[in-house]
TrEMBL record:
Region of interest: Disordered: 1-21
Matching Gene3D superfamilies: alpha/beta hydrolase
Organism domain of life: Bacteria
The protein's name: Alpha/beta hydrolase
Entry's Gene Ontology molecular function annotations: hydrolase activity
Domain BD-FAE-like: 27-223
Organism annotation: Streptacidiphilus cavernicola
InterPro entries, A to Z: AB_hydrolase_fold, BD-FAE-like_dom, GDXG_lipolytic_enzyme
Alphabetical keyword list: Hydrolase
Length: 265
């Protein structure tokens, strides 16, 4: 399924800036062939928060979602290995982008009724974290009262603590936060969705049972924590699915993704 990473796709309709850094941009795709369905999908890419991976590999999925009637916003953000990426820049960027999104939408004539955050892998972590910002301490620059209508995490790194303890992708969580959970626990307390429950937002977790990059146990553990906190959460396990099949609109994950976007919120 990793073929989707190199599959060509049409360019976005627009690219807008939400900051002065070259990576503080967002690609916009408008619904194709027919009326918009009223949902803005914010698609946050993965890549274990590293600069080696950018938003371009989500092109086939973003284009397919636009063809299905959704409006797409695909943000880029500073990542580990790029200037200012990691802690706290990656979190700064996502927060600023979401604050700027209404202005960007208005400038491009985007009118929607609901906003759904969809994130893959590390992007799943960022989508869940973005929905949890209302749970941050009052003095945090990232705190906001805004919440999305729903979150869909695709093989998400939903627990930074487990990402660190399991040493996923050779210590990716420690790279992001500048240390492991035992080294900088105060950072994990602010950045880990699992530490910020309940989110108070409908969450769907889609995860393949053959995922070698982010084991399905990650979503199982997070779903259990979220349910015990009282959150509305649904886990859909896809037998035989690998890590990248979840962002491939030609895979069997596609109808499950559409259902999750439409059902949440």
């Amino acid at each position: 399924m990793s073929e989707v990473l190199n599959r060509p796709s049409p360019p976005p309709d627009h690219t807008a800036h939400y900051g002065s850094h070259r990576e503080q941009v967002v690609d916009l795709r408008m619904p194709k062939e027919g009326p918009a369905n009223g949902t803005l999908v914010v698609l946050i890419h993965g890549g274990f928060w590293r600069a080696a991976y950018d938003r371009t590999h989500t092109g086939p999925l973003a284009d397919a979602l636009a063809a299905a009637g959704y409006t797409l916003a695909v943000p880029e953000y500073r990542r580990v290995g790029s200037f200012g990426g990691g802690w706290p820049g990656t979190f700064d960027d996502l927060s600023v982008f979401l604050e700027m999104l209404p202005l960007i939408s208005t400038a491009h004539g985007i009118r929607t009724k609901r906003t759904v955050l969809v994130g893959h892998s590390a992007g799943g972590h960022l989508a869940l974290w973005a929905a949890a910002r209302h749970r941050l301490p009052a003095g945090s620059n990232w705190r906001t009262d805004w919440r999305p209508d729903a979150v869909v995490a695709l093989a998400g790194c939903s627990s930074l603590a487990l990402t660190d303890v399991w040493e996923l992708s050779r210590g990716a969580a420690a790279e992001l936060l500048g240390g492991g959970v035992n080294d900088v626990p105060e950072r994990y307390a602010l950045a880990d969705p699992g530490a910020l429950l309940p989110l108070g937002v409908p969450v769907t977790l889609l995860h393949g049972t053959m995922d070698d990059d982010v084991p399905v146990d990650m979503s199982r553990e997070f779903a259990g924590l979220a349910q015990r906190s009282g959150d509305p959460v649904r886990l859909v396990e896809l037998p035989g699915m690998d890590h990248f099949g979840l962002i491939d609109p030609l895979s069997t994950a596609w109808p499950h993704l559409l259902e999750a976007i439409d059902d949440g919120g």
